[in-house]
What we know:
Elements: H1 2-15, E1 19-20, E2 23-24, H2 27-42, H3 50-73, H4 76-94, H5 100-124, H6 133-152, H7 180-186, H8 188-201, H9 203-215, H10 222-232, H11 240-255, H12 257-264, H13 271-280, H14 285-311, H15 314-325, H16 331-349, H17 359-405
Helix pairs in contact: 2-17, 3-17, 5-6, 5-8, 6-14, 8-14, 9-13, 11-12, 11-13, 12-14, 15-16, 16-17
Protein name: Vacuole membrane protein 1
Transmembrane segments: 46-65, 77-95, 115-138, 273-294, 306-327, 363-384
Organism: Rousettus aegyptiacus
Amino acid sequence: MAENGKNCDQRRVAMNKEQYNGNFTDPSSMNEKKKRDREERQNIVLWRQPLITLQYFSLEILVILKEWTSKLWHRQNLVVSSLLLLAMLIATYYVEGAHQQYVQRIEKQFLLYAYWIGLGILSSVGLGTGLHTFLLYLGPHIASVTLAAYECNSVNFPEPPYPDQIICPDEEGIEGSISLWSIISKVRIEACMWGVGTAIGELPPYFMARAARLSGAEPDDEEYQEFEEMLEHAETAQDFASRAKLAVQNLVQKVGFFGILACASIPNPLFDLAGITCGHFLVPFWTFFGATLIGKAIIKMHIQKIFVIITFSKHIVEQMVAFIGAVPGIGPSLQKPFQEYLEAQRQKLHHKSEMGTPQGENWLSWVFEKLVVVMVCYFILSIINSMAQSYAKRIQQRLNSEEKTK
């Protein structure tokens, strides 16, 4: 693999010498041109150029729709087969019969899996930004199940309404019967599906780098260009960030499957570099995706689950609330809303929510809801900006190609 990578590197360097009007261009001037184009695109954001950004965003959507329509038109057999299968599923769903109990069960499981897989994909791919769905959705869900398990002394929450709403079962549980493993088992499906989504979200960098390596082209992608610059200046890199990225690249390249597994099994903000490295060095797809899936959906998720469950176990939460109350001056005033919120949750778990909603619950719920709204709005804005910049890149590429043909 290393020899193949060396030959491809030589081919890539040779292709950098593009001919312009019969002369070879200076690579430094080409890099300066790319840098100016990148800076120009980065200024196309809603808070700086709202009209241009919205215009480019709309045009990019039209371009994507046109491309997908063209692809589907050339795959008419696949489209017709998919439509027939969809028609059969719709008929099965709406026709009355004894099969409806199985249909409803499959629908419920499918929606549950799709929900958490979708959140995992949003957290991982995010069009260059990422929506931190673990902090906003999965983490709070695991924390809620943990608090409820210790309060109810059981994880046999009735279904429905769980997971939409957690209510203690009518049968009283035995004090101290809740173990770490029982809570892990209760949230395993949601956590693993979220991990599967994050593994799927790591595929675009891999496919992008692999396609670029096979075609010999140089995609105008910032992460890929940074990766190639890192390879060129690997021996002279001194700063911590460059050395950390180089360490990830070396681990993945030399160790292979187990190196990818190690990088995917821990919270690693540099894992995108692992995907680019695997694509660049033509690592087989199932080697990359298999190691990523095992690392993210099984090993990493169990580490994160155990951390959240231990953090929100009953005695830890009580100690945290007591610690807040011990803060000089403002401690008691900060402690009160948390105590009221926990008491409100206990009442809900024991079917006592009709007694009224405490003020502390409204305050904490309001803060969390606004945080979720802000994060989702920022994610939507980042998608608009990213797609507008993608259309601007199309314009720049067209202008550059026109200049070369003159």
